[in-house]
Sequence to fold (413 residues):
Amino acid sequence: MQSAKDAGLVRCSECALVCSFQKNSRCPRCNALLTFRQTNSLQKTWAFLLTACIFIIPANFMPITVLISQGKETPDTILSGVITLVESGSPGIAIIVFVASIVVPLAKILGMGFILISLQLKLNMSHRMRFIMFKFIDWVGRWSMLDLFVISIMVAVIDKGQLLVIVPGPGATAFASVVILTLLAAKSFDTRLMWDLEKDNDWTN
Amino acid sequence: MAMNKYNETLVACEHCDLLQVKQRLQLGQIATCPRCGSRLYFNSSCSPMSMLALTLTALILLFPANLYPLLSMTMVGSTETASLSQATLKIFHEGNYFVAFLIFFCSTIAPFLMLLSLCCASFVISFNLQTRWLKQLLKWVDYLTHWSMLEVYLVSFLVALIKLVDLADIELGVGLVCFCLLMIINSLVLSYYDSNSYWQRVPIDAVS
Fold:
């Protein structure tokens, strides 16, 4: 059992053709530049992650929607929206929104941070565990878009002019940035770096 | 530029780089990586011709799903309808261009372009046409699947529905039926699409 890199072979990042590696050469099938690993993968992931860390603060504390009823403005943050849902008697939906908009972005940032740190400190942990963790983070990330889609539907439907209007607040922009940044962070992370760590190919654990 | 040697009998895992010899699979079988457990390649029971039919159906459904109302709502005497495209346009008019673009991209543009590229690629392969665009189409399919979020949109719709149901009288629209069908066909397309066999139809010596 050996990795392609150890055999001097490289998998084309676009079309998956296995080629022999030469510096600055391109894939004979799809013409993509061949590299063993994504270039600067860890740096890029850190950059996206830290930016997401900054944006998650306004995303949670600034109003994500503003309800204007007869001239009176009621701003709603993500958390206050969830609380309203609980009070109005739909705890199931409240849990979905809470998980998708608060737990998932936070868990993504913490989880990716943990994976990156454990990788760079070469902590001794099961590669398979770490990989499953990453796969989960990668899969669950897209569900954070849920809240933005909900807002777009609410804004479209509730439009009664002077009586009752919902408009997206500044928190929505910050939240959208967090979603994009965490998606990009997961995309720029090269999982093969995790398996490169194992020196003695002891991958059975 | 030096031409690289390649080996089509080998496969390297996308996620852990484990090198292995390709096996011949029976129809519908999936080969997974013994080290990290990800899917390596599979023998899809869906031919490019069937894929062409599926993607065409999805492309046709995409228009009513976007343009017909998902729901209409009666509140304080007046009725509002909302279609997917209207919902995006509203946010755009509020001046939140960034959020509007993101929603538009993930719910409409990405699925549309992904299905269109896959439809064209299936067409090219089914009828054995020669075009230098095939590899570009396959690359687009790969980039865009990541950003196409139809299933997330459907769940969002349900969440919005439950939020609204207490406020007003709601009637579901034709658009919703089309959207559900679109989502089902889209997930069929995703699970049957075999990128490996598509890429194998790209001629290697045609590259400059």
Observations:
- Chain A is about 55% helix and 10% strand.
- The longest strand of chain A covers residues 65-69.
